[in-house]
Amino acid sequence: MINQKNRETLIKLLNDSEQKVNIEDLFLYELSPYYNEKKDNSFFSKQLEFIQINNLLNHNLSNISFTPEQVKIYNQIIENERILISAPTSFGKTMLVKEFIFNEQPSVIVFLVPTNSLADELIEDFNSLFKPLGYTIYDTIKEGSIIGDKSIFIGTQEKYYQIFQYFNLRINLFVIDEAYKLSDKINSSREVLLNRTFIDTLNVADKVVLLLPLVNEINGLDNLNLKL
User: Fold this and answer.
1) I need a surface site. Which of 15, 153, 185, 219 has the fewest CB within 10 A?
2) pLDDT tens across 190-224, in order?
3) What gap in Å lies between CA 96 and CA 87, rounded to an integer?
């Protein structure tokens, strides 16, 4: 039990000790104000430094840290089989997915995007990040090919549906970017195909992540057990 007398004893021991004391240990005993600060750093800055170090992205070499809200949603991706992430474009939704892939390394991944140009950007980015981990990143496959043990498809619903029959194994991670298009009015074959690929893949995917901008609601997804 930490009472005032014990706290005073601990403070004296800290003053006399030559051993390094970590700030997280002092938080545990409510002694954080006694952290041995650098002269040019405030205690507040040391707290921020501690938080940032613990929230650093593993897949990024630029020492970028998650915000508390990003940490919360990242943990929801890990904990839930189906999740819908609605946030502004600048929030970093794709970054959260990349961090999940880097840390958990699901085997067969499908990442649907609305345009070929966006697919090309992601393929280049994913190649630099995940090829060293043994992943094959692709948007088409040849007749008779077999999906590899560690593979990431990135492309439009049209390209995905052309090769859907080749996915004999379960899909471990299924991501749809701009998923609000699932509720668009059916004006062309694109909307039909997007919904068809979503429905056909939903029950063969271990984890489903839908990414969309900040919207009030999206119709038609109420009964799919999506974590919001």
Assistant:
1) 185
2) 888 888 888 889 889 999 999 988 765 666 666 66
3) 12
Looking at this protein, which amino acid is placed at residue 221? L
Pull the structure tokens for residue 131: 């090829």
Q: Is 205 exposed, middle or buried (0-12, 13-18, 19+ CB in 10 A)?
A: buried
Q: pTM of the predicted model, to two decimals?
A: 0.72
And the tokens for 77?
């991706």
Provide the H-helix boundaries in the chain.
4-16, 23-28, 43-54, 68-79, 93-104, 116-130, 157-163, 189-202
Distance CA 35, CA 22 (A): 8
Structure tokens at 135: 């992943």
Contacts of 78 (CB under 8 A, 6+ apart): 100, 104
Residue 121 CB partners (closer than 8 Å, separation 6+): none
